[in-house]
Amino acid sequence: MKRTGPKGEGKFERISWEEAIQTIISRWKELIDSDGPESILPYSFYGNMGRLNAEGMDRRFLHRLGASRLDQTICSSAGSAGYKYTMGGSLGIDPEDTIHSQLFIFWGINAASTNMHQVALAQKARKQNGAKIIVIDVHKNQTGRLADWFIPILPGTDSALALGMMHILFSENRVNQDFLQKYTVGHKELREHVVKYDPHTVSAITGVPAEDIYKLARMYGETSPAFIRIGNGPQHHDNGGMFVRTVACLPALTGQWLKKGGGAIKGNSAYLASNTANLQRPNLLENKQTRVINMNLLGDTLLTLDPPVKSLYVYGSNPAVVAPESNKVRNGLTREDLFTVVHDLFLTETAKYADIVLPATSSFENTDIYTSYWHHYIQLQQPVIEPYAESKSNLDVFRLLARGMGFAEPLFQETEAEMIAQALDYQQNPYLTGITYEALVEQPFLKAKVKPIFPGNLPTPSGKIELYSQKMLADGYPPLPTYIPLVNDGDHPYQFVPGPNHHFLNSTFSNNQKHISLEKELRVYMNLQDAWKTGIEDGDMVRVWNHRGECVLKAAVGENVLPRVAATQGLWADSGDTKQLVNALTPDRIADMGGGATFFSGRVSIEKI
Ligand SMILES: Nc1nc2c(c(=O)[nH]1)N[C@H]1C(S)=C(S)[C@@H](COP(=O)(O)OP(=O)(O)OC[C@H]3O[C@@H](n4cnc5c(=O)[nH]c(N)nc54)[C@H](O)[C@@H]3O)O[C@H]1N2
Ligand SMILES: Nc1nc2c(c(=O)[nH]1)N[C@H]1C(S)=C(S)[C@@H](COP(=O)(O)OP(=O)(O)OC[C@H]3O[C@@H](n4cnc5c(=O)[nH]c(N)nc54)[C@H](O)[C@@H]3O)O[C@H]1N2
Ligand SMILES: [Mo]
Fold this sequence. Notes:
The protein is α/β, with parallel strands linked by helices. The protein folds into 3 domains: 2-75 and 272-430 and 441-447, Rossmann fold; 93-265, Dimethylsulfoxide Reductase, domain 2 (3-Layer(aba) Sandwich); 494-608, Barwin-like endoglucanases. The protein is 33% helix and 17% strand. The chain is built from 24 helices and 24 strands. Strands 20-22-21-24-19-23 form a 6-stranded mixed beta sheet. Strands 7-6-5-9-10 form a 5-stranded parallel beta sheet, sandwiched between helices. The chain has a 4-stranded parallel beta sheet with strand order 3-12-13-14, with helices on one face. Strand 6 (132-137), helix 7 and strand 7 form a beta-alpha-beta unit. It is globular, with a radius of gyration of 24 Å. It binds ligand MGD (2 copies) and molybdenum atom. The site of one ligand MGD has 30 residues, from helix 5, strand 6 and strand 19.
């Protein structure tokens, strides 16, 4: 479709694929002549999680084009960087082993909504072996409600809690000296360092009572196998990388990595890493010094970057809803001189700002391979339905764009089967041994041949778990796990935590009436004490605002959050006169590591309307 009304209004007229591709190509050719290829910015994320569709043919095309490159930092990059300092890469335990775990700590993960398969295993272990489930979260949501013990904590303070646990484990001699000697570096330095994180100090920071810190540390020190599922929530903060780096040290103190079902999972993607050089062809960049743009800064990028972005190509993402500082993002998208193309299954909020909208197929219509952040399987997906109407896959659209640009290299016309074979042809990843396209056609899901991490070497500089990290020091961080308070976000009384919800997937399904009615409406959870003080009652409409924007939401008053915390669930799209775009309130500050997002480090004021 092509736009016929003002940007944002959503008025379009149907055109043919030929006209659409022709319009894009001729505009891009003009821009390349006048401003160079870096005036074109792709913006994408994992709406489609297939290797080929999310990060395959698109990269080939964009590298060849020489467009600006997008640093895909919106989700978990701070935490991944933090985990890497401690453990060397995205390597955790096999989640299927957690059936043997005696203690589950869900730390900042709303697993009942976002990792329900792990919850099923935890519940089975609880039923069969009497395992205990602890949830540490700022919001008692569906996961907190199924815990044996829910520990509420103030947002952004989790590193202090983990350090307080270490303080007790060391001082009460509940550490595994043998494991520390063999498999870690820096345990002596850490032991001295955590002396200052005594339970009273930590309690004042975290809001967790000192006796609960003792109880937690002792349970963790006494129960084996103990498993920590490290969530995405606490790493969406200014200090998020350091949190994950810190909590990742805990299993080493008690030697849990040696126990089947002990250890941790932050992410497991390293086990199924495929051959990105084959898949994405970074060689097509030909040593061009192409600029890289952090996707969390989309608003500023569109409004103030120099030389400017003149064309935005969006696929597999809905930045008008999911990106921080949405007022800036939307102002940027309104620019008349910005040529915007959106490829999506739906006419998303972002698509309403587009000059050209292209219809996308869903995963059900494509051939691709899938892996998980969590389990150890790789899966071949083959289409189960024909492409709906005139929709096309990301792969097909990039093939058309390549043809339109006159890119003659055969690699733009390779088939899905050929690309999958190339992705799996990867000597450097021994876990992929035996997993080929042909094998997946026979058996569409195959498990990587992962061995326990220990005994063995980690991909850290020392080959061991780095409790003390020389590399962090070199990179400008404290070398030991450290609690660093959140950045001052202004004089607003509430720490605002707008997480995802159960029935949407980020903003996906937020346009679907069935999913909306399952969620009912967007509410802001606040503590009873705060409500009393401000005269707000459960069900009142409140204005939630800060220096970035405002929302109008229904208050849910109770004890699901601590005083001075406000939480919402779900990335709801505005419809009609509603004001429920929570990212209008979130900061676009960059986290301490990995260029990560800080969605949960914003502050807001709340008043009754
Ligand atoms: N149903 C559903 N499933 C999803 C998604 C979805 O939108 N809906 N999204 C998918 C995606 S892209 C991702 S990245 C994952 C994310 O899934 P999770 O890893 O579960 O991450 P979040 O839901 O962002 O946050 C997890 C929890 O962290 C809490 N939290 C926030 N700040 C803090 C803090 O400072 N300390 C502590 N201890 N807790 C804190 C939040 O209250 C929330 O309950 O889920 C995926 N799965
Ligand atoms: N306030 C707040 N904001 C957040 C978060 C939060 O917790 N709180 N979470 C953040 C996180 S962790 C993430 S990962 C991001 C996610 O943000 P996004 O990646 O933008 O995720 P979605 O909103 O699900 O949008 C995905 C889009 O891709 C489309 N799509 C699906 N399949 C295909 C396909 O094959 N081709 C094309 N072209 N399109 C397709 C879908 O229809 C949908 O519109 O949001 C972030 N934003
Ligand atoms: Mo995410």
